[in-house]
Structures are given as C-alpha cells and as structure tokens.
Design goal:
The structure is a single chain. This protein has helices at residues 12-20, 34-43, 48-64, 92-102, 138-146, 150-155, 176-179, 184-193, and strands at residues 5-7, 25-27, 72-81, 84-86, 106-117, 120-133, 169-173. With 196 residues, it is of the alpha/beta class. Strands 1, 2, 3, 4, 5, 6 and 7 form a seven-stranded mixed beta sheet that branches.
C-alpha cells in the first residue's frame, strides 16, 4: 500500500486504526456541522443508520471536493437505542443522562464509512455491533464517569470500549474496530482491490 489516503476526521482512534493496519493516511478534518445535519435528518424521520451513512458521505465528499484525485475516507458512528439516535454528550450531565438511558439495555453501535473521490462517493459500507449494558446503580455510573477524561468522553460518546468502558457491558457482539469507529476489514479489502 504505497498511496496515501485522506482521512476526513480528526479522530485519533481512527488514525490509529489506519496506522495499525499499515494504511498510510493524511488527516484533513471535514468540519461538517453534524448537529445541523442530524437535526434536519431526524425531522425527516431518518433512521440512525441513514444518519450515520449520510454523515460519513458528507464528510468524505466535502474534503474530496477540495483534494483532487485522492481517495478520501469519511466515517461516522452513532448509537441506536430502539430507533432513537443517541449523540455524543456536550457535558458530563448529558453523559450521565445517556448512561442512565442505556443502563441495563441493548443498543446498536453503527459505524459507517465512505470513500469519495473528486467530490463524489465511490464506495460505502455500514456495520453494526450490539452492546448490552449491565444494570448499574447511579453511584456506579458516577464512579465510571469520574475515571474518564473529558477528551475521551466527548470523542467516543460515553464509553471507550478499549478502556474503562468495557466494564459497563455484560455482552458485546460485533467487530471491535466497528465499535471504535472504523470497520477496517472492509476498508482494507476495498483498498487492496484498487491497488492501494
């Protein structure tokens, strides 16, 4: 894999996953206002999966329109709790509310990726993992939140599966990289088939 791809995300975790898989990349954040997009899609009654796909495509297309003849990878992850979209918390109070909502329940973590070139999508893929949270007391949830840095809290939604967050769950079904925001196996397959 000689050619570099462009990662339309400032996510350190996504960059690390690419590095671990020997995919050379440069980072060019899309700076898409996700809240505005989510709000308008929710008004149209879009499912969390459609919202995730649209955001991944929007990010990739926006960056690839500026960087000609390069493959640009956009990605987005959302939580789907019985059809309700759960967004990243804006503060610790919101994080606590989200944890209470997920407490004792199963939810989907949906990760969508899109590869665009010259402003248009040329490939996309969406994967889903099912996570079932333990039934925890408010005290246990507060204790968990007290161990999480602000950076981790706002970057990964309310749990960091490769860190403290794993202890919140009684079962995790699905691909670990999908849960961390980048279903890398399919990306590698696509890039390999296209000479990267």
């Amino acid at each position: 894999m000689q050619n570099k791809i462009v990662l339309a995300s400032k996510s350190k975790v996504r960059k690390d996953i690419l590095n671990k898989n020997n995919i050379k990349s440069i980072v060019e954040p899309s700076n898409v206002d996700e809240d505005i997009v989510k709000f308008s899609l929710i008004k149209e009654q879009a499912t969390p999966e459609i919202i995730s796909k649209n955001l991944a495509e929007l990010k990739a297309n926006k960056v690839s329109a500026k960087i000609i003849d390069q493959l640009v990878l956009g990605a987005d992850s959302v939580i789907d709790l019985s059809g309700e979209l759960i967004s990243k918390p804006a503060n610790r109070e919101e994080a606590m509310e989200i944890l209470k909502k997920l407490n004792g329940k199963a939810h989907f973590l949906i990760s969508s990726v899109c590869i665009s070139k010259n402003g248009s999508m040329i490939w996309n893929y969406t994967d889903k993992a099912t996570l079932t949270m333990k039934n925890l007391s408010d005290e246990e949830l507060k204790k968990y939140l007290s161990k999480i840095s602000n950076e981790a809290l706002y970057a990964y939604n309310v749990y960091q599966i490769e860190g403290e967050g794993r202890h919140l769950f009684k079962s995790i079904e699905g691909d670990e990289d999908t849960i961390m925001g980048l279903p890398i196996k399919k990306i590698k397959e696509y890039l390999k088939n296209h000479g990267y």
